[in-house]
């Protein structure tokens, strides 16, 4: 069963009703309408800012121990409801239930970790040049009211990254979650308030994305912006934030390179990379995106990856036998078709897949593309779908040059046993996160973020909490 959808403003839960603008939420596997999502009015957006502003002083002054207890209770409520919320996620986003539960587990662990890390917002004492006459204290304080914007591909994890860190730091926050996948954000907001979060500390709004973002970012009382989404939209939001000199954290597009060297543990690399590539139908910002395989393994890798792609079972994510669900919407299907057409025009070989599957739902076949040169879009632009492009390389320097051939720099991966290759990948890949012989680069306790056109700032780890804190120096004379 799907959930009741609502806005949350100053502790009030507001559903759809006569005269209110709303939009349908659809199941991408079937096209069925799951529910009607209410939009916030301009007046309600202003009310959300006012409520967050009123609540800020009290929440910032609340002892970190008490804030921690609320976040830990929230995590417990979500853990008790994980099966029901996972089903909501699968219905509205399409990913298989096992993946949905995995995402929710990660989100719950983030709440738990941030609940503890929020108790450690330490300052420091700077040794004085005039001991006994002058003292310097460095204080860490919450930045203020925050506006957070999250996408549709991870509808629980990305809201929790922002909500959990902001609240743990003592900030109040207004969340504008995705209108395409709102159900998980609704359940998270419900759990926060059931756990005892005071009214106004966390609000949830929906509407026309451009209208909501412009209204919230322009509000003088909003002092911090956090966004996860595409690079073009991120640049636009940065420009809006710059008008008010507001702090931003931007987790933008990725186009992760993968280097598979001749000395890699081939079977382990193949299994890990194909599983990661087709997870969430490739709709993952850190998904391995551009595959560069040593020429001695290239043909074998292409054939084996295509065999694994053909073996994947597509279907409604509620089916426990389903291994890959639908794409999120018709736009993504059209984008995949455009990438395949461009690859064919560029002389690449479509080794497996390459087509929409069926007439119902947004299914696209897991696809492998073999190319001899990086002059097709798949090696320039982020695909964000279930297409695995492979190209051969000969030398280490060639591999690094190919990997660094885009402006994006979120994640990168290398599979090798040689210490020199490992060191090169770690130090020479221009990315914010590197996985060597692993794709496990995202945990609650580690920083998550990119460089270049993949944005700046980190979520997760102590760095994720720092993003919501500002530094104050207090110099005290005797």
TrEMBL record:
Q: What is its EC number?
A: 1.2.1.16, 1.2.1.20, 1.2.1.79
Sorted alphabetically, which InterPro entries does this protein's record hold? Ald_DH/histidinol_DH, Ald_DH_C, Ald_DH_CS_GLU, Ald_DH_N, Aldehyde_DH_dom, Aldehyde_DH_Superfamily
Query: From which domain of life does this come?
Result: Bacteria
* MF term (GO), any: succinate-semialdehyde dehydrogenase (NADP+) activity
Specify the protein name: Succinate-semialdehyde dehydrogenase/glutarate-semialdehyde dehydrogenase
- Active-site residue list: 251
Q: Which PROSITE patterns match?
A: ALDEHYDE_DEHYDR_GLU (PS00687)
- Belongs to which family? Belongs to the aldehyde dehydrogenase family.
GO terms for biological process? gamma-aminobutyric acid catabolic process
